[in-house]
Design goal:
mainly alpha; single chain; Cytochrome Bc1 Complex, Chain C; 13 helices; 280 residues
Length: 280
């Protein structure tokens, strides 16, 4: 029998509900935006949305902040699962999908920046196109599958953004968290945080030539790495995260070693993220 540590009875559920509630708000606000968004004229669609559609600016802000909160709280939920060693209780498949959910959420948030169509979106598109093509053997295939921006513009990115959002919502609200639980107090109150942020703050579109050439905030670590390391190495580093996370379930007897590798992985990324803001 494998060694089982003294595990607590349950996780802290607030972080998981926070993420699920924010993601539900993100899906609903995204449905509103989709009626007014056209990928062939992305920036023009958003400018028109904010200028002419009632509450258009609020719904775009709500979609933005709810997505960021869902991503951050999902990451905290994964760290909470590691802290409590839930991989001793879950099957390898369940643990794999838990780690994959963060990878998918990162892709959804990243494509959200691409779909803005402004300078931040253009820079993110260039980085995504260059990084995926640098992957050995399968690079071109991966690029055509998930991006293909030079050939199709933002159409394929937009389709993946919608399709993966739908699949992720089905996975969360059918197999993990029930919606009827989220509409009860206090879980329903977690969604108010996104609404309050959308009412107070506004994520401005960045005109061309007027901002620093920087991609999404969660991607600046990789952007900083590209200044030092080859593209192929950076892409493999990013792709290594779900496999490293899965190692907690596969190599339970060597959890200390896996934990050290995982912490080192995160520290490297955080250091490069800090260097982006600290150094010119």
């Amino acid at each position: 029998m494998p060694y089982l540590p003294n595990l607590p009875k349950k996780l802290y559920p607030e972080v998981a509900y926070f993420s699920a509630s924010s993601f539900l708000v993100c899906i609903l606000s995204g449905m509103v935006l989709s009626f007014h968004y056209f990928p062939e004229k992305a920036l023009q669609s958003l400018v028109t949305l904010e200028a002419t559609v009632p509450f258009g600016r609020f719904f775009r802000s709500l979609h933005y902040f709810s997505a960021q909160i869902a991503l951050i709280s999902l990451f905290l939920h994964l760290l909470d699962s590691l802290r409590l060693k839930v991989y001793f209780l879950k099957s390898g498949v369940s643990w794999f999908f838990l780690g994959l959910s963060l990878f998918v959420m990162l892709y959804l948030c990243f494509t959200g920046y691409l779909l803005r169509g402004d300078e931040v979106g253009e820079l993110a598109s260039a980085i995504a196109d260059s990084l995926t093509k640098s992957f050995p053997i399968l690079g071109l295939a991966l690029n055509k599958l998930f991006f293909a921006i030079p050939e199709t513009g933002l159409h394929r990115v937009y389709l993946w953004h919608i399709f993966l959002s739908f699949l992720t919502a089905c996975g969360i609200f059918i197999f993990h968290v029930r919606i009827k639980r989220l509409v009860r107090f206090p879980q329903a109150s977690y969604a108010l945080f996104s609404i309050v942020l959308a009412l107070i703050f506004y994520p401005p579109l960045k005109p061309f030539g007027e901002v620093e050439a920087r991609g999404p905030w969660f991607f600046v670590g990789a952007q900083s790495m590209l200044k030092v390391f080859p593209q192929e190495l950076v892409f493999l580093y990013l792709l290594f995260f779900p496999f490293l996370y899965q190692a907690f379930s596969l190599f339970r007897r060597h959890e200390k070693l896996v934990f050290v590798l995982f912490i080192s992985y995160l520290l490297i990324y955080f250091v490069f993220s800090f260097l982006w803001f600290a150094l010119p």
